[in-house]
Amino acid sequence: MRASWLLGMKRTLRLGVETASHSPVQMASDMLLPPKQLFRALLRAHRLHLPLEMRSLGDDYVKAEFRRHQNIDNPLHIVGFCSQWKMYLDAILREAQNSNGEVHGKSLDPHLIDRFSDEQLYQLYELKLATSDVFDPEKAQSKPPAPDNSGDTP
Question: Less Cβ around it within 10 Å: N or C end of the chain?
Answer without folding.
Answer: C
